[in-house]
Structure formats: structure tokens, C-alpha cells
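Lab channel / #folding
Pinned by the channel admin:
"Please post every new chain as: sequence first, then the C-alpha cells as a reply. Keep commentary short and put observations after the output so the thread stays searchable."

First post following the new format, from NK:
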Amino acid sequence: MTETRFHVTGIGNAIVDVLSHADDALLAELGLDKGIMTLVDSEQAQKIYSRMGPAIECSGGSAANTIAGIASLGGKAAYIGKVADDQLGEVFRHDIRAAGVTFETSPGGDGAPTARCLILVTPDAQRTMQTFLGACVELGPEDIDEELVAASSVTYLEGYLWDPPQAKEAFLKAARVSHDAGRMVSLSLSDPFCVDRHRDSFLELVNEHVDILFANEAELKALYRTDDFDAALRLVRGHAQVTAVTRGEKGSVIIAGDDVHVVSAEHVPAIIDTTGAGDLYAAGFLYGYTHGRALPECGRLGGIAAAEIISHFGARPETDLIELISAKV
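Reply from TO:
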């Protein structure tokens, strides 16, 4: 087996998050579906951006948030994703490298700007996301660093990346390289609407390529077209080796073969912004998994990381996660 250089390499949409507070009236005025990620074109993105209040710009993207969280925990992490050679691309490169993540993907060359996600956070801490993919759609099989993937214990994909056809081929290539090297492949389902768009191919992907599956309750039920959570758990059993399902204040459920582990949620004094909660749960879980922790402890680490994220504005940790976990575990 190739020498292990990284605990996790993430592959995802390299996006700069633009976060701003908003109220329900603005969402209604703009015709936005609250709490949902929607893909928009350049014109729509500009229209929404013009109506946003003061904003914070920071490196984002679902898998990138997970990888930054793993680095914050002290794990060795790398990332593959496409940005343009522009101002927001430089924001992304700087932020993810400053977080301690290896990021060497070549910038796009056809003029498409770096992707951005306009995130409107309402007083109830729900985030409504409008995403312009820009340069993300250029990610293809040629961007997969085979040596990097083969040297990573786990290769992690965000479901959002399943939209562009070239990106599908990129991930399938990465999955083959990972498994040929005796490594593991992980997938986050990302969003119920994303699952609705790609249900059949997601099921095929999970059955044939995924070892560790992450989903929230709504995503898992969408995958199996059921409103019954217990039925969804029965249906997913035996597909991926490990499935971790987050349930908000109910904590998480982890399934591995015949074993089911129920993990309580961590206490959060005040929920400020749910952006990145699932991403950081995956970070804590994968950090624990790649360090040989038992599955219930992996779920606990995921819950601690997620609780830190939802206690403040933004999807990157503001607290040293190593110190936080040392104090709690």
C-alpha cells in the first residue's frame, strides 16, 4: 500500500461564501425557498447580492468546510477543487491553505469566475443558499491527483459536486484510485433537493463505490422515497459499510452492519447559524474514524464539532477544535 500522507482528501465545489443576515420578508420578496440550496446563474447571483446587507466573505464549500475542520482537529488533510485566477479565487486559496490544508488544484482557464454561495441567515438561524458554480463546473478527471488520493486513508466527496458531468467522472476516477490503493471512499448527500435530482445515480454510487455515507434525516428519507425514518434506516443497512445520519437536536444515528449506535446531541446555549453543521459533523467523525476511534466516539466528535459551528456566524471553526475536544472527551 502507498504510504499514508493524509487522513482525508476532500473533493468538492470550491466556493467563496458570502454570508449576510436577512429576514423572512426579504426571502419572500426575492422568491427564495427558505433553508434550501438553489443553483443560480450569474444574473440571479448579482440580483440577490445587490439586495444583501453587510456581508462576510470567506472560503467555503461543503467538502472544503469538512476538510478545514479535520485540519483544525490536527488531522492531515488535502483538498481538490476548481477556482479561477481571480480575487475570490485568491480568497479561497489563502483561506484553505491558512487552515493547514494542502490545496494544489490548478486554476480554471476559460474565464468562468470563482464560484460563490450567497448565504442569507434568518433570525431562526436557518440558512438559505443561492449558489453560482462558476469555475466549479470545470473540475474534471484530469484534476484528480492520483498519488494524493492513493496516499489518503479516506477520499471524501460532497453530493453537490454530482451536478456537473465532468465532476462525476472526476469522482468516479478518484473512487477507483482510492479502492485500488486499499483506501476508503466517503460521500455526503448534501441536500434533499440534490438527492431528488440524482436519486438513481446516488443509489448506484452508494451501492458500488461508497464505504462511509453521511446524510441528515431529510436526505436519507429522500434517497429512499419514504417519510418513515426507521424504514430509511432499514433500507440503507448493508449498502455502505458505515452510515452516519444527523438529526439536529436529536443527535445522530450510526449504522454499521447489524450495529446501530444512537449518539446524543451536544448542548448549545444559543444556535446562531446552522451553516456548516453537517460539514463539521463529518469532519469530527472522519477525524475519529481515521484515528481508530470507536463509532460512537466518532459520532460524539462529530457532534462536538457541529455544536461549535452552529454557535457562531459562518462555517469555519472559531475555537481551536483540538482544545475543545480535549476538554469534552
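NK: DSSP finds twelve helices and 14 strands in the chain.
TO: also worth noting, The CA atoms of residues 4 and 151 lie 5 Å apart.
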